[in-house]
Design goal:
Arc Repressor Mutant, subunit A; 2 domains; 9 helices
Length: 181
C-alpha cells in the first residue's frame, strides 16, 4: 500500500517538476508519509525512478503485446500496435509522459535498460517480419512512429487541436505511408 503510494506520488511529481527538481522531502510531504518510510522501501531516488520506469515500461510493453494479431497482415499489425500505443496513452497519460521524459536518463539501471531492450526487440522483430518497410534500421522505424506519436500528443496538449479518433486514424495512416515502400 505505501509502496504504491510512494510510486504514484513520485510519478506525479517527476512529471510535474522533473526528476532533478523533486527532492525526497517533497515526495514525503505530498504522500503524507515520513522520509524514513520512503527510504525503507527505496534506498535512493534513483531506485524510485527505476521502479517507476520498470513498472510502466513493462505495462506499456504488455499493452502492445496483449491480443497481438499474429496471423493478421502486416498492415493490420501496424495499425494494432499504433492504436495500442494510443490506448496506453489514454489510460495512463502521466505514465506515458514519464516514460518519454526518462527514456534515456543516466540513472536507469541494468534492469530498466533490459526491459526497454525487450520492448525494442519485439518491435524490431515486427519490423523485420516482412520486407514492406523502407530500408531503414528497425530502431529508426520504431523511433519514427514513437516520435510522431509523442509529438502529436505534446502539440495536442497545448490545446491547438483535439486529438479525435478521426485524426488518430489519419496520423496512423500517414505513418504507415511514410514508412512503407
Amino acid at each position: 500500500m505505501k509502496n504504491e503510494l510512494i510510486l504514484d506520488t513520485a510519478l506525479q511529481l517527476f512529471v510535474e517538476y522533473g526528476y532533478e527538481a523533486t527532492p525526497i522531502s517533497m515526495l514525503a510531504d505530498k504522500a503524507k508519509i515520513a522520509i524514513g518510510t520512503i527510504y525503507r522501501y527505496y534506498p535512493s531516488k534513483n531506485d524510485i525512478a527505476n521502479a517507476l520506469f520498470q513498472k510502466w515500461k513493462k505495462n506499456f510493453h504488455d499493452e502492445l503485446q496483449e491480443g497481438f494479431p499474429i496471423d493478421a497482415s502486416i498492415r493490420e499489425k501496424f495499425k494494432f500496435l499504433f492504436f495500442r500505443m494510443v490506448s496506453f496513452y489514454k489510460k495512463h497519460p502521466t505514465a506515458f509522459e514519464f516514460l518519454e521524459f526518462h527514456y534515456h536518463s543516466s540513472y536507469l539501471n541494468q534492469k530498466s535498460l533490459q526491459i526497454s531492450e525487450e520492448m525494442m526487440k519485439f518491435l524490431r522483430n515486427f519490423v523485420q517480419e516482412e520486407k514492406v518497410f523502407k530500408d531503414m534500421p528497425p530502431d529508426a522505424i520504431a523511433g519514427f512512429v514513437m516520435g510522431a506519436f509523442t509529438g502529436i500528443i505534446r502539440t495536442a496538449k497545448s490545446n491547438t487541436f483535439i486529438l479525435s479518433d478521426n485524426l488518430l486514424k489519419m496520423i496512423e495512416e500517414n505513418c504507415w505511408q511514410a514508412l512503407t515502400k
